[in-house]
């Protein structure tokens, strides 16, 4: 669609009330959404049926009965809805999960969009029309980009473009289908738009942190160029009118430059494992990049010192998560007592007067959250949202930077155990060397040497492994042996049974000199440059 036609579609509204204010909109969509939303990979309430939805906010981005050049054009609705599920009645309504929906509306759905179908409402203002997932329609995605090019307000929605930024128009949209917790669309080879499906009031770290890093001149993270937010707090009631405002806006989507031709770290690692290639040069360079990001975040945003009280709270939270996971996953129970010693060691450090620096961090760092350019082999870090299952306030809190380091070490282990070797001796040695190289690169570039804080590293790696056990038990039971192997190592031998032959010492500490120690940290493994869109992977 041409830029002129796109602009007319965005501006060509009839002088009529919007369907978003018409009675019966959500009730007519409710039965369709109750079937469709729980099947989506980004739906967080799996395992509990959805009994209904509350409307938080609605906007008509494109008229549902609009035309372009005399032909019927699809409409585009933006909805924020709260999902009601069993158990949520004991909480306040605002605590229910809120989801962002972009709905296409058309008389007839073309066959190429059959996979995007949601359904046809029996009544209400959309009766007789077909409703579908607009983010799977390249045409509507292109029109969404056109709307992002124009700063301003539309109902509760607010669109912002970075100063002195001119966004290209008329780019072909390519929706990605590989993500789980969000949805992304690539435009030409210029931009990628990340749309947050689960919406929470407050500035999303995936906008906040890259903006801060861009203004700190950190080149390791693609800078946001445009984004959109909502002021709506919902749910909508007749007494309140069409919307009311939240104390903090809800970040809905962020547009950043697309690193065309870059390869994500997870696929690079699997490629190396598939041909039994060393990865230490790339791992060391990735350690450099991670340290640069942490240094820039510490300079750009507030930091603090964690003292006894803070360490005790952190340890208590870790212990609570362990107990909850053990209740849900019986295989974890025999290791619970020995795993708790990692958290107890933190409280002991606090009582001994030790303190640790805390700052803003990535919060969900793993190989799939990194990209390496095809040319110079330079690493970038992406997806600063943090673990989506955690509350937004927790994801925006300051934490020790080594939490990201521990998470990356777990990712190397995951690659080795899930790759072609299936966790054989060579693959495990590959992981040990990669972990060692990453930590060396991190320390060389100014990060805290992980070997200097073994108690902190063990606590955070244990906490991450416990999280992985619970996740795999719920979503991918066949993968459960991967984090359980880490649990056995981190728990140490059972004194009643003797030494477990699988257990080793701290696996990121090498037993001997690394022959790649002097390699250029920006070189190594450059042959693995096939692009694969990053996923929500460990």
Automatic annotation (TrEMBL):
Its EC number is 2.7.1.175. It is an enzyme of class 2 (transferase). Keywords: ATP-binding, Carbohydrate metabolism, Glycogen biosynthesis, Glycogen metabolism, Kinase, Nucleotide-binding, Transferase. It holds the Pfam family Mak_N_cap. Residues 1-23, 491-538 are annotated as: Disordered. The keyword ATP-binding applies. It catalyses: D-maltose + ATP = alpha-maltose 1-phosphate + ADP + H(+). It comes from the Bacteria. Residues 36-137 form the Maltokinase N-terminal cap domain. Pathway: Glycan biosynthesis; glycogen biosynthesis. Monomer. Belongs to the aminoglycoside phosphotransferase family. This is Maltokinase. The lineage of its organism: Bacteria, Bacillati, Actinomycetota, Actinomycetes, Kitasatosporales.
């Amino acid at each position: 669609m041409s830029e002129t036609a796109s602009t007319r579609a965005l501006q060509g509204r009839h002088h009529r009330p919007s369907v978003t204010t018409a009675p019966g909109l959500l009730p007519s969509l409710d039965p369709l959404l109750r079937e469709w939303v729980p099947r989506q990979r980004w739906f967080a309430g799996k395992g509990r049926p959805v009994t209904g939805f509350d409307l938080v906010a609605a906007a008509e981005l494109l008229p549902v009965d609009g035309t372009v050049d005399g032909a019927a054009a699809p409409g585009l609705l933006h909805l924020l809805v709260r999902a009601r599920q069993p158990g949520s009645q004991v909480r306040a309504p605002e605590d229910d999960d809120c989801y962002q929906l972009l709905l296409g509306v058309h008389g007839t759905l073309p066959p190429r969009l059959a996979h995007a179908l949601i359904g046809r409402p029996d009544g209400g203002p959309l009766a007789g029309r077909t409703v579908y997932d607009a983010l799977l329609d390249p045409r509507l995605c292109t029109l969404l980009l056109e709307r992002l090019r124009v700063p301003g307000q539309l109902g509760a929605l607010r669109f912002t473009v970075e100063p002195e930024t001119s966004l290209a128009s008329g780019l072909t949209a390519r929706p990605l289908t590989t993500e789980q917790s969000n949805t992304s669309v690539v435009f030409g080879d210029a931009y990628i738009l990340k749309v947050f499906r689960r919406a929470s009031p407050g500035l999303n770290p995936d906008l906040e942190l890259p903006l801060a890093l861009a203004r700190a001149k950190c080149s390791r993270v693609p800078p946001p160029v445009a984004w959109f937010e909502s002021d709506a707090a919902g749910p909508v009631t007749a007494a309140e009118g069409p919307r009311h405002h939240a104390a903090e806006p809800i970040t809905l989507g962020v547009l950043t430059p697309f690193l065309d031709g870059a390869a994500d770290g997870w696929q690079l690692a699997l490629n190396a494992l598939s041909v039994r290639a060393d990865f230490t040069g790339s791992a060391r360079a990735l350690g450099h990049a991670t340290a640069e990001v942490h240094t820039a975040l510490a300079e750009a945003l507030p930091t603090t010192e964690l003292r006894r009280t803070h360490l005790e709270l952190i340890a208590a939270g870790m212990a609570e998560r362990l107990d909850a996971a053990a209740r849900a996953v019986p295989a974890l129970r025999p290791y619970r007592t020995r795993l708790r010693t990692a958290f107890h060691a933190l409280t002991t450090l606090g009582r001994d007067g030790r303190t640790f620096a805390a700052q803003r961090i990535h919060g969900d760092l793993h190989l799939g959250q990194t990209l390496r350019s095809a040319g110079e082999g330079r690493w970038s870090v992406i997806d600063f949202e943090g673990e989506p299952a955690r509350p937004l306030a927790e994801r925006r809190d300051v934490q020790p930077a080594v939490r990201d380091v521990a998470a990356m070490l777990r990712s190397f282990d995951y690659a080795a155990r899930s790759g072609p070797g299936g966790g054989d001796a060579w693959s495990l040695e590959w992981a040990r060397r990669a972990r060692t190289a990453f930590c060396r690169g991190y320390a060389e570039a100014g990060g805290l040497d992980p070997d200097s804080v073994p108690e902190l590293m063990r606590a955070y790696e244990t906490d991450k492994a416990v999280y992985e056990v619970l996740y795999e038990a719920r979503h991918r039971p066949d993968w459960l042996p991967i984090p359980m192997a880490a649990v056995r190592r981190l728990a140490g031998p059972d004194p009643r049974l003797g030494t477990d032959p699988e257990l080793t010492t701290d696996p990121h500490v090498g037993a001997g000199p690394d022959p790649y120690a002097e390699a250029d940290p920006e070189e190594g493994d450059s042959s693995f440059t096939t692009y694969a869109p990053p996923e929500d992977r460990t």
